[in-house]
Every structure is written in C-alpha cells, then in structure tokens.
Amino acid sequence: MTNGYISRPKKEVFVSGVKIFYGSQTGTAKGFATILAEALSSLNLPVAMINLKDYDPDDRLIEEVTSKNVCAFLVATYTDGQPPESAAWFCKWLEEAANDFRFGKTYLKGMRYAVFGLGNSVYLSHFNTVGKNVDKWLWMLGAHRVMTRGEGDGNVVKSKHGSVEADFTAWKTKFISRLQALRKGERKHCGGNCKKGKCESNQRGSEVAEPGSHVQEELPHRDAEDEEPFGSTNEEESDTEDHQSSNPVIDVEDLGKIMDHVKKEKREKEQLEGETSAIRSTVKSEASERRAMITPALREALTKQGYQLIGSHSGVKLCRWTKSMLRGRGGCYKHTFYGIESHRCMETTPSLACANKCVFCWRHHTNPVGTEWRWKMDQPEMILKEAIENHQNMIKQFKGVPGVKEERFEEGMTVKHCALSLVGEPIMYPEINKFLKLLHECKISSFLVTNAQFPAEIRDLKPVTQLYVSVDASTKDSLKKIDRPLFRDFWQRFLDSLKALAAKQQRTVYRLTLVKAWNVDELQAYAELVSLGNPDFIEVKGVTYCGESSASSLTMANVPWHEEVVRFVCELVDLIPDYEVACEHEHSNCLLIAHKKFKIGREWWTWIDYSRFQELIQEYEDSGGSKTFSAKDYMAKTPHWALFGANERGFDPKDTRYQRKNKSKDISGC
C-alpha cells in the first residue's frame, strides 16, 4: 500500500508474440504458415509471418534473444536435400554461424523456437534434411527448443498421420498447447529421464507433467549425419538442459565425445612423433615419400569449416569481411589501413601446411605441420585458376541475398587482391614465386604472411605488394610457448627472418598478436626486434578467441580489451622514435603503427596505389628484375576517417552498418 492506495504488481509477460518463418518452394510451407497464423489469432498474441527470402538473419535474428517471442520455422526440403530458393541464404548463414567460433555457443541464448519440416520419405537419404539442420544449427548457437521438431511426410504410406497436412495439423495442435503453457510461465516436469541425469526443473516448482507424456518418446531421432554434439531435448522434455553442463559425473552418452577427444590427442601425438622420426631418418626415395597433403580426414574437417580445397595442398575461403562489404557494410582492417576493397579480396593459400602450432591458431590445428615440403606438388597455374573459380562461385551464392548491392556484387566477381594468409605457411610452397608472378599478371595485388621460420625463402622471395612477418613474441621463451615451432633452431630462424625482411625494398609489416598474460609485458624486447627488421608498418592486434580446444589453453581472459591494445601501442611507440600511431580499426581490435617516412607534411600515406604497383611490377619483370622499386613509389594518401583518433574509429562512413556517432577520444598518451 502506498499513500493509501494498493498498487498491483505489474503482470509479467512470458510470451510477447509469435513469429512464423517459412521457406517454401511450391507454396505448401507458406500455406501452413498462414493456417498457423489464423489458428494463433484466438490467443490475442501479435503474430507475424516472415518469408525467409526477405529476412536478414545477420541483422535481425539476434533480436529474438530478448524479444520474448516464440519463433516457429516451417521449412521444406527440396531437391537433393537442399533448402528451397527462398530459404537458401538463411540456411547458409545459419550453418556458417553455427560452425564459426566467433559466434559461440551462446549467441542465440534466450531465443525460443520450434521447427516443422516438410519432406517426403520416398527420398530417404534426404528426408527432412533442411528441417533437421535448421533445428540443429539454432541449438548449436544456444537457442532453446520449446518442443520436438515436427516432420511432415508427403509419402502417405509412411506418414505418421496419413498425409503431410495431417502431420502439420498434429504438430500445430501441440505447438498451440505448448504456447499456452509458456504464456502462463509454465514449464513441464522433467520426469527424471533428462539426458544429463541431473535436472534442476524439480527445484523450480511443482509443475505437473502432461498426462501420458513420456520423455523417451518425445526425443527426436538422430540421423547418422547428425552425430555432432547437439542437444535433442527441449523445454517440454528437459527444461534445464544446459549447453555447458558442470556435472562432474560422466554420462554414458558423453563417453563418445570424450573418446573422440582422446583419439584426437592420440592422433596428434602420433603425427608429431612421425614427423620427428621422419626428420631424423635417412631420406627415402622421392617416389615413396611424395603423398597428398590433404588426407580424407583433413578434407572432411576443412570442408566442414567452409574451405574450398584445391588439388592436393591448397585452399580458398570466403572472408566474412568480403560478405560484409558486398552488402555495403564495413570492410576489414586492411581496407582501413591500406585501401583494400574487401569485396574484391580472395583469401587463399598454396600450402595448408605450417611449421608452427600456435596456441591461437584459428583452425584448431586441423592443418598438417612440417618443416619442409615433402608432399606432392600441384602446378601454380592450376592452383590460381581453381582458386579464382571457387572464389567466384562463392560470390555467386550472394546473388539475390537481402542487402547485397548490385554494383558491389558485379565488382566482387573480379578479384583485385589476394591475401595469402588463410592458413598454413604459403612461403613453403616451392613454386611460390611463380604463383606470385601469375597473380600480378592477372593484376591482382599480393599480401603474403609468413611465420618467420623460413629466412632463406624470404630472401629469395620476389617482390610482393606487402610482405608480413608474424612477430608473436619478443623473447625465445615466449615464442616457444606461443608459437610452439617445430624447428629446434626456431629462435635463430626467427631472427634471421627479421633480418631478411629488412633487406626488402617493398612494403614490409610486423604483425603482433597480443595475448594477455603471455606477451604484453615485453615492450623493450619488441622495440629491439623493430630495430632488427626495420618494418614499414607494425600491426598490433588483440588475439581472437577461437573457442575451446584440446590443443590450446587460451580462454577469453587472454583477449585484451581495445583500450589495453591502445595502451600497449602508445607505450611501444614511445620506445621506437621513428614510428607513430597512424590508423585504427576498432571492430578488429587492431591498430597500425607506421614509419614516419609515410607521413608527408602532416598527412599519412599508408594506403596503396594498386594501379601504380601493377605498373612497377610489370617494369620489374620486363627488366628481368634489374629495375627495382621501393615502398614509397606506390603509396597513396590515407583518408581522414581511417586515422587513429578519428570519430569513425576506422569505419568507412560510406558503409551503412558501421556509421558511428561522433565521439571524443583521448589520445594524449600517444
């Protein structure tokens, strides 16, 4: 009672509305969506029907985490298990997000959903594949399944209820019943049979289970291809199934996952022992040693990660910044620092193998390792041809995707830049110089990254647009701890690589990856390494957490905040008087330190004149390598928005997504 009046507590809203998403080829799923919307009208809930063709999950799906909506997905499976055209982009985005560590297992935590798939069991191997996948991918991103997936079957002989329409009617009835329970805040009793064996639902109240409900009957079956660790329980069956169970008791069903980790570690150990013994053993005949770098198991692992594999040792993958810029959004930090057009950049490698096993490896060490080239070798002409074709095919998949700008789509079909930094050590490829020459003949700029373990190859390398060396630590002990190199003389190789870089006349870059509590306190040692290689630029980037891995002990605690990266950069610049902080890309947690020779007057010239570079490299080739050129011969002026301290924080103001409000920034420390 307040001032003599009784105030009623505000009624809690458990369900604010229903969104019905549909992906239809012949109109059946759309028709079912309409029927469901009409049936829900009696509940006095806002209902929205959404064609997945017009829906942008990149922007809008995250809204469902806090919206208190319940999302129903009605999706058909089309030819060969593929989604209908209207749902193709949504499914592709969802699959990539589910398998991308940057999204994580809690990206959609808080979102509630249910799935009804439409298929025909006549096509047994592809029956309801799309519905199963959407269900799985949403779960992998942390969304909560409110009821068992429904599967409509167009084969009347096998249909559970006699027809796909009857299957949908049964699912719809159950969905409405479940929705009514959710509106009341009810959660059904577990029954004691939940998968983890330790359900907390009994502690939340004394809700009574639906009469005749059996948890085991409700569990959706798992297909052979669905053996990934995704949950098959739901709120109706097990309200408190958690993605990150802390139960110390090992369930029998979890033994398979544990054994997978044990087997994986055993394989890695055997692989490393095999490589060590191979180095020590006498050299065998070439015919007996030359084998394909890409084994069937490696092909399966990398394909699942989104790679398009080429020949026996190369690969190409579409960068997320390429996708972003196709849609008129922000480019990568290379766009900010050097003027790369991200939607025209091809990320590839002619060698998936590497001589390090870095703790922050993005690929969780799925790629092979080695200290020398001992595999079959594909010709550079074939690698480049197939790399471009695969890249273009991946770009074509964005035709008609919501938000993709037509002019950028057309531009994206012509590769202008090549980032040789996808995975592995490209400089190991014996024909790397020929490959670079082919790139330049196609008027494609080259950005090559090496891990500083092959000094001779760096010395022999022909000119590239920009040459990177990864400087992941500044002392012998920390480099061994972070990069875990295979070479016994790794430290001398590292120093010799930096000296070799100093002799290069084209643009050179140190790339520093900061790992909190591992390598952020070695400022003076970093400054000494800078004087050794005299790079034109120094990129400093906070480490990207790649998710849990048996091969690494890194956690989110090792990821520095952007402010911490800025502080490190400012303190480092104080120790290297020939350099200043030039640019910033806040979204990538990355800053660029540039040599003062690129500051003309009071203006930075860190960008690249790509047309001029192509002219210079052509003159170099025509002269047989006698006519050299320097980094300053093809520099271009850096725009104001890319500079450190600018309000845009490194985001191109022309791009729609990353337009920022003006903010003041204290850069007095630099």
Automatic annotation (TrEMBL):
It comes from the Eukaryota. Residues 225-240 have a biased composition (Acidic residues). Its cofactor is [4Fe-4S] cluster. The keyword Lyase applies. Residues 338-584 form the Radical SAM core domain. Its EC number is 4.1.3.44. Residues 215-224 have a biased composition (Basic and acidic residues). Residues 18-176 form the Flavodoxin-like domain. The keyword Iron-sulfur applies. Pfam families: Flavodoxin_1, Radical_SAM, Wyosine_form. InterPro entries: Aldolase_TIM (IPR013785), Flavdoxin-like (IPR001094), Flavodoxin/NO_synth (IPR008254), Flavoprotein-like_sf (IPR029039), rSAM (IPR007197), rSAM_sf (IPR058240), tRNA_wybutosine-synth (IPR013917), tRNA_wybutosine-synthase (IPR034556). Residues 187-254, 265-284 are annotated as: Disordered. SUPFAM superfamilies: Flavoproteins (SSF52218), Radical SAM enzymes (SSF102114). It is an enzyme of class 4 (lyase). Pathway: tRNA modification; wybutosine-tRNA(Phe) biosynthesis. It catalyses: N(1)-methylguanosine(37) in tRNA(Phe) + pyruvate + S-adenosyl-L-methionine = 4-demethylwyosine(37) in tRNA(Phe) + 5'-deoxyadenosine + L-methionine + CO2 + H2O. Keywords: 4Fe-4S, Iron, Iron-sulfur, Lyase, Metal-binding, Nucleotide-binding, S-adenosyl-L-methionine, tRNA processing. Probable component of the wybutosine biosynthesis pathway. Wybutosine is a hyper modified guanosine with a tricyclic base found at the 3'-position adjacent to the anticodon of eukaryotic phenylalanine tRNA. Catalyzes the condensation of N-methylguanine with 2 carbon atoms from pyruvate to form the tricyclic 4-demethylwyosine, an intermediate in wybutosine biosynthesis. Belongs to the TYW1 family. This is tRNA 4-demethylwyosine synthase (AdoMet-dependent). It comes from Bos taurus (Bovine). The gene is TYW1.
